[in-house]
Amino acid sequence: VRDAIKNAKLNGLSNVEFFAEDVNKFLLNHPEYAGKIHTIVLDPPRSGIAPKALRRVIELGASRIVYVSCNPATQIRDAVTLEEAGYTLDRFSLVDQFPHTSHIETVGLFIKTKKNDNATTAAGGATANEAPAAAYAATGSAGAA
């Protein structure tokens, strides 16, 4: 968070706030943010975000959710929930942080849409369910190191 604050100052940004907190605790401690958050970055553990916590994140109504995952299998599960809640996978990327291993990180950008028509993405036509599945198929792993 300190680096994020420093970076914001260096770039002249004054309308941002940063939090590094368990999502459940944050949602309990800061109900005043519901409906006011533009972007949420999720980087859950290998087991994925807890279903109840994901529902609470969705209730915040952010227009963008960046979901970083070390396990495409749990990202698929959570992506389906996001899609059902009206988010569309806009971009998806694989990040090879650990070369010569089967471990990959996946990053998905989900955009809140007015209606969920299971739209395809500009990045290859994959739906939220298909992109992490394709990552899983390409690596033959669920992101295990």
UniProtKB/TrEMBL annotation:
Keyword entries, A-Z: Methyltransferase, S-adenosyl-L-methionine, Transferase
Record-linked InterPro entries: MeTrfase_TrmA_AS, MeTrfase_TrmA_CS, SAM-dependent_MTases_sf, U5_MeTrfase_fam
GO BP, sorted A to Z: methylation; RNA modification; RNA processing
Gene3D superfamilies: Vaccinia Virus protein VP39 (3.40.50.150)
Pfam families, per database record: tRNA_U5-meth_tr
Binding site for S-adenosyl-L-methionine: D43
Transmembrane helix as UniProt keyword: no
Residue positions of the active site: C70
Gene Ontology molecular function, alphabetical: RNA methyltransferase activity; S-adenosylmethionine-dependent methyltransferase activity
Family label: Belongs to the class I-like SAM-binding methyltransferase superfamily. RNA M5U methyltransferase family.
This protein's name: Uncharacterized protein
